[in-house]
Structure formats: C-alpha cells, structure tokens
Amino acid sequence: MDVMMDLAIAFSTLNVIVLAGLLFLYARISWRSRALYPVGLVFFASLLLLQNLITAYSYVEMTPFFGEALLPYLAAISVLEFGGLIALTRVTL
C-alpha cells in the first residue's frame, strides 16, 4: 500500500476518534443544559462521524481502485480535516 494512502487512512481514523470525543462532549453538554444549540452540535458531530467512518472504510476496501495521482489529495483532505477538528476541540474545551 502506498504511504499516502496509509496517511489518509490513519488521519481518517484519527478523525473518527476526535469526533467520537466531541460527540460525547456535546451530548454531555446537551444533557446538562437542555439547550437546543448543543443538540445541533450532536447532530453535526454524528453526521461528520458517520462520514468519516465511511471514508476510512472505503479507503481501506477500495485502495486498489484509487489512482496514484489522487492519493495526495485524499491524504491532504484527511490531514486538513484533522486540523480543523483539533481546532474545534480546542475551542470546545
């Protein structure tokens, strides 16, 4: 497997972990405050978590179908999303 695809898979998996943590935090805030805004954050984090689970799975299962020229873009998307999620986590905490 190519290094760039391994990088994309690794960061997609890290995104899933970070999003699971954010989902837990948002659910806890929603439960304690009973406000509507955290419910929206729970919905957002849930959908983004589902998207990242599907992405990581598709990267693992469909690696042979991705062209070599596409791999740097897939890795960049995963790395940039991870950076955004870390920033979101930092602001949330």
Task: Note down, in words, how this protein is organized.
It is a single chain. The chain has 93 residues and is mainly α. It has one domain. The protein is built from three helices and no strands. Helix 1 runs antiparallel to helix 2 and helix 1 packs parallel to helix 3. It is elongated, with a radius of gyration of 15 Å. The mean pLDDT is 92.
Largest sheet: none
Number of domains: 1
Sheet/helix structural class: mainly alpha
Q: What is the overall number of helices?
A: 3
N→C terminal distance? 37 Å
Mean pLDDT: 92
Q: Supply Rg.
A: 15 Å
The percent of residues in helical segments reads over 70%
- Gross morphology is elongated
Q: State the total count of DSSP E strands.
A: 0
Name the beta content range.
under 5%
Q: Which features does this protein show?
A:
elongated, mainly alpha, 3 helices, about 90 residues, about 85% helix
List the helices and strands and how they pair.
Layout: H1 3-33, H2 36-61, H3 71-92
Helix pairs in contact: 1-2, 1-3
